[in-house]
Amino acid sequence: MIRTATEKDLPEIQIIYNQGIKERIATLEEDPKTINEMHQWFCSRSPLYPVIVAAEDKVQGWASLNPYSHRSAHAGIADLSIYIHRDSRGRGLGFSLMEELESRAKAQGFHKLVLNTLAFNYPAQHLYWKFGFQTVGLLQSHGLLDGQYVDVLMMEKVILTDCC
């Protein structure tokens, strides 16, 4: 079941995010996040940028819309994040989360979704391409991960073509 995340979900969201940090495939973050950091992140979010979870008994994955830019010209663009618990990967949860996130983005009036993904994160890229995202750029040596510079792919999908 896909639903809006609550504060009660934060310990499981933290576990999943910290898995992504530890595995070095989903984010350039290097330091695990504390529950206090996750709480601060969650409570400071605007309702315009939801966090959703795939959950039955426990959270198996989560996704969020995030601000792309502070500039008003980019108000219709949202960045997205998606993380799946390592034990739940390959079960279609990423697809379900993406489907719901795109639906909510459209309902909020966003016209474009953007994301950055590590160039070697092929499972994530496959999901994004399946969902109609296009690769629009390669940022070479864009981030430092474990003492090595890594490339980052920029991807986007236009979801609404009508303005305003």
Describe what this molecule looks like in 3D:
The protein is an alpha+beta fold and 164 residues long. The chain has one domain (2-158): Gcn5-related N-acetyltransferase (GNAT) (Aminopeptidase, 3-Layer(aba) Sandwich). It is 29% helix and 34% strand. It has 4 helices and 7 strands, in the order E-H-H-E-E-E-H-E-H-E-E. The protein has helices spanning 10-23, 35-43, 93-107, 122-130; strands spanning 2-4, 51-55, 59-67, 77-84, 112-118, 134-145, 148-158. A 7-stranded mixed sheet has the order 1-2-3-4-5-7-6. Helix 1 (10-23) crosses helix 2 (35-43). It is globular, with a radius of gyration of 15 Å. The termini are far apart. The relative contact order is 0.16. The mean pLDDT is 95.
Provide the fold topology.
Blueprint: E1 2-4, H1 10-23, H2 35-43, E2 51-55, E3 59-67, E4 77-84, H3 93-107, E5 112-118, H4 122-130, E6 134-145, E7 148-158
Parallel strand pairs: 4-5
Antiparallel strand pairs: 1-2, 2-3, 3-4, 5-7, 6-7
Helix pairs in contact: 1-2
Shape: globular
Label the structural class: alpha+beta
How many structurally independent domains?
1
Order of helices and strands: EHHEEEHEHEE
* Second rung of CATH, namely the architecture: 3-Layer(aba) Sandwich
First and last CA, distance? 32 Å
Helix content: 25-40%
CATH homologous superfamily descriptor: Gcn5-related N-acetyltransferase (GNAT)
Strand ordering within the main sheet:
1-2-3-4-5-7-6
What percentage of the residues does DSSP assign to strands (E)?
A: 25-35%
Average pLDDT number: 95
- Oligomer state of the chains in this structure: single chain
Rounded radius of gyration (Å): 15 Å
Low-pLDDT windows of residues: none
**Annotation field: number of helices:** 4
InterPro entries: Acyl_CoA_acyltransferase, GNAT_dom
Organism: Marininema mesophilum
Pfam family, one: Acetyltransf_1
GO molecular function: acyltransferase activity, transferring groups other than amino-acyl groups
